[in-house]
Amino acid sequence: VDLDTAKQELEEFIPHVRNISDSSIRKMAGRDLMRFKQFKKQGIAVKFGRFSQKENNQIRKNVEEFLLITGIDSAEKLLFTSRYPEDKETINRLKAEHLFCEKLSEGIPRPWRLIYYRARKMFDPNNYKGRYTKEEKEKLKKYHALHGNDWKKISEMMSRSNLSVAMKYSEIKSAINYGPWSKEETQKLMHAVEEVIRKRMEMEDANPLSSSEKSHRDLSIDREKLYQKLPWTEIEAKVGTRYWRQCKQKWTTILTNKMTKGQQLYRGTKGLQAKINLIKRLYEMKAEDANEVNWEELSNTIGDVPRAYVQAKFYKLKVSCVPFWQKKTFSEIIDYLFEEKLPELEEKL
């Protein structure tokens, strides 16, 4: 199909398609359009956001089946072919002959590119190497000075994944402060968040306000806009002395204090009760994956708090209470907390 038709047809499944480059749209027209139409016939919508446990398992199954069909001896060779120059030609021929694109995306209603990136993240042995040493951080700064944002090249030089080196560089690129937040930093953060929310609202607003009206009007917005899908890298740049994850955590703390009027919700007996309520509600939900959990609804089990606060508390709970949690599925983690930790917490209370 020609470019305009491709854009038109893809727009039904990907509303923001007109912001995507022409070359990417051409690839999507080839790899995704027919798949999306088939999923539509089955009543399945195209998905974005975090991959569920079910989707991760489907990717594993697709990769394992492709390795069996082709005789390629590892997922790393299949997904990181450039690391094996002597086998590159043979692997690429096998991928073309056995329709690698189709096989990898089988049964997953998402754009092919996102499935491919997810598979690479799952099967990259360089992705699970733990903390960066001082020497590695220095090397990363040096390589970035030489190669800029060529994360592919830098990742190969450091034997770390592209994503890992890019994220680590965002943490160490400037004099990041790791101590308590100063008043000035907190003010900068609050102004930065207000700025991005105002900008977003103006774009959504059919009748933009004049600058004088804008500076005088109070923001009256849905609570969700205060903490969902904020552009944290942009906020990081405006704050200047903290990296994006610190900004996100601090903003969650500020919101929690505002929403709870400064009450300590997670201390003493209140804290024990909150953990008990959280485990019970998660168990009752019978969710197979974290994506299926309505964190907004769960926030009421602790108090009137942002969803990020509840997610952080759950993360802390599983890391501190569930042995080998990284190797367990979401439902196994919940079962363990319910069967092993809950009686202990109730007794303590």
UniProtKB/TrEMBL annotation:
Start and end residues of each Myb-like domain: 124-172, 173-255
GO biological process: termination of RNA polymerase I transcription
Pfam families from the UniProt entry: Myb_DNA-bind_6 (PF13921)
InterPro entries: Homeodomain-like_sf, Myb_dom, SANT/Myb, TTF1-like
Origin: domain of life: Eukaryota
SUPFAM superfamilies assigned: Homeodomain-like
Boundaries of every HTH myb-type domain copy: 124-161
GO function term, MF aspect, one: chromatin binding
TM helices/strands, residue ranges: none
Gene Ontology, cellular component aspect: nucleolus
Protein name per UniProt: TTF1 factor
Species, as recorded: Oceanodroma tethys (Wedge-rumped storm-petrel)
